[in-house]
């Protein structure tokens, strides 16, 4: 059992079910329409099912794999009743995701990686700063000593926002003035964390710079400078994606992972959107593990991602 469940108990799953309510409802509405008036899963139902998956933001590549699996089953079983369809779909999606290497959902902090440096990246507005606040809270609950670094110096409000989180959680923050060099803030942060014998460092970065090349160069520079203090830092580069943007989240994952090294993903804002299917596609298609999902704006609304629980909630019949 993960530390998260020990702390948050059953509320976690309830929270997840609630967070996925919209995705779940919209999905079953579409399935219902796809099978309306039909008893047998035939080619037409399969075509409609393909549409359902694509319009549920599962992504084309993953949809094609799932449909192929169901076609094989239909060919084998001869007659498949449409009433079994959602159960079968659930099974095949589970099987597909199970083929991906399982990764431990929590970050593996260890004594010989101390402080464990997590650099948080992503385009503007996806939820980087909020995710840092929520993560800092979780680490603190675990008894870890956390230091935040305000390396998003692009906007004045960005630093203020992280300061608010540091006060809310009760952890120190290292910052400089707006417009100062982000790499210098990151350097100060890891140096201070090392001197304080901290366990975890969370570095906030800007999502918006003049252009993409600038952004990527800046991230590289932040890394290089931190390595002067801690040679193997950052231990994690966490890419935050806004789940409510559906296919855009896919695109951002593609672009970021091509341009810079990313070790883990967090998908936010799954509450209040019907685009939760994006998590299924992203965890199928990217080699990089989804580690966290955001299901609300509150301090406790970040969950370690568990694909089995996720699919279970996604397919839960209300
Ligand atoms: N509903 C919901 N809102 C979220 C979630 N995560 C973040 N938000 C909200 O999304 C908005 C943007 O979040 P930020 O954390 O400021 O995003 P950011 O990536 O740091 O943005 P920049 O600093 O502008 O690059 C805020 O209003 C957050 O409260 C989530 O899981 N669910
Ligand atoms: Mg921010």
Automatic annotation (TrEMBL):
| Keywords assigned | Cell membrane, Cytoplasm, GTP-binding, Hydrolase, Membrane, Nucleotide-binding, Receptor
Q: Which SMART domains match?
A: AAA (SM00382), SRP54 (SM00962), SRP54_N (SM00963)
Q: What is this entry's stated membrane topology?
A: Peripheral membrane protein
PROSITE patterns documented for this protein: SRP54
Enumerate the catalysed reactions.
Answer: GTP + H2O = GDP + phosphate + H(+)
Q: Which SUPFAM superfamilies match?
A: Domain of the SRP/SRP receptor G-proteins (SSF47364), P-loop containing nucleoside triphosphate hydrolases (SSF52540)
The entry's GTP-binding residues are: 122-129, 204-208, 268-271
- Which GO MF term does the entry hold, naming one? GTP binding
Q: How does it assemble?
A: Part of the signal recognition particle protein translocation system, which is composed of SRP and FtsY.
Record-given protein name: Signal recognition particle receptor FtsY
What's the encoding gene here?
A: ftsY
